[in-house]
Amino acid sequence: xxxxxxxxxxxxxxxxxxxxxxxxxxxxxxxxxxxxxxxxxxxxxxxxxxxxxxxxxxxxxxxxxxxxxxxxxxxxxxxxxxxxxxxxxxxxxxxxxxxxxxxxxxxxxxxxxxxxxxxxxxxxxxxxxxxxxxxxxxxxxxxxxxxxxxxxxxxxxxxxxxxxxxxxxxxxxxxxxxxxxxxxxxxxxxxxxxxxxxxxxxxxxxxxxxxxxxxxxxxxxxxxxxxxxxxxxxxxxxxxxxxxxxxxxxxxxxxxxxxxxxxxxxxxxxxxxxxxxxxxxxxxxxxxxxxxxxxxxxxxxxxxxxxxxxxxxxxxxxxxxxxxxxxxxxxxxxxxxxxxxxxxxxxxxxxxxxxxxxxxxxxxxxxxxxxxxxxxxxxxxxxxxxxxxxxxxxxxxxxxxxxxxxxxxxxxxxxxxxxxxxxxxxxxxxxxxxxx
Length: 436
What we know:
This protein has 436 residues and is mainly alpha-helical. The chain has helices at residues 2-9, 14-44, 51-72, 75-80, 82-96, 122-143, 150-154, 157-170, 174-191, 195-214, 217-224, 238-249, 275-308, 312-337, 354-372, 375-384, 388-397, 404-435, and strands at 102-105, 108-115, 118-120. The chain has 18 helices and three strands.
């Protein structure tokens, strides 16, 4: 059984289909849980109970189209779009800080108003832009054999990352800044940067994080809620404690979809940051483990794609996408469980949020494009798209000795043999006539 599973896992198309299937299942599960967690909130605001579901479904449709387009786009096309995506994202992040254009939500000014109820969060697309740009940059450096030189390894990658982090921190979004730093570390690690570089980088990041935390009372209170079992005198740990209540009351199989109690005004943000808590209350431990299993399958298949890659860019971009999804899921889940401070980052593909969903689905499309760039995957996908007789005919045509070049050689050899035979017969007739 284990050998059969190993053979199935090592097939060319297995990681491709695992990534695609896990993404579809997580997005579908997210739509169901978003509807369940948000309908009470919508009614409280005087909105239809399906208000948030419709918006999330629209974002999922846009993300699905973008995923398919990104998966079909050749790797070269993604590399050509790397710098324009980064420049455009930086411009949008700068526009967020312009008075009248930026929108403040929950104390963070990281939304760009588009008119009416529509807004976009550029910091989510900054992750995708940095993934493609950073992978392309390091692939070019590796192609020139300059990865061992620190100035080529770190410049302009690190300054570009720090500029993105600074623009994100201007809006107060420290969670996204942490994920961008994780992406930078992941890219450098896969590129083969020396370990001492990470030691110094971690020391610097720790010092900067400590400074940012101690200068903000809001961030200090979030660290004070680690492992809290009581909301505290000012209810500063209310969200974390009630998230724990929701998870603990779910039991093994949960109360059933739509039967959550905490979403009735007890748990703030039940459809965004703390959607895992509502999922645990309604779907139980089995539902939570199934969700975590889908995330694990998605990340494992992405790492398999990166390990198989022969091109540096494909390996780097696949590993960066996996780093993004794994880091964001870990931060969100750790915050809900009280093991990490609540950072305000959504659970990928599950939490409510159009910008976050579209950006992650675009990243999954890049991951599928990376898988399709391998020759064995392309050949398997091509053979899957042909009818059986066509595949058999193609196999006969391309058997050893049956290639077009071999056919030309056989035809030329037969013609040459025929010509030699005619010349011999002609010479024999000539010699016979002379004797006579």
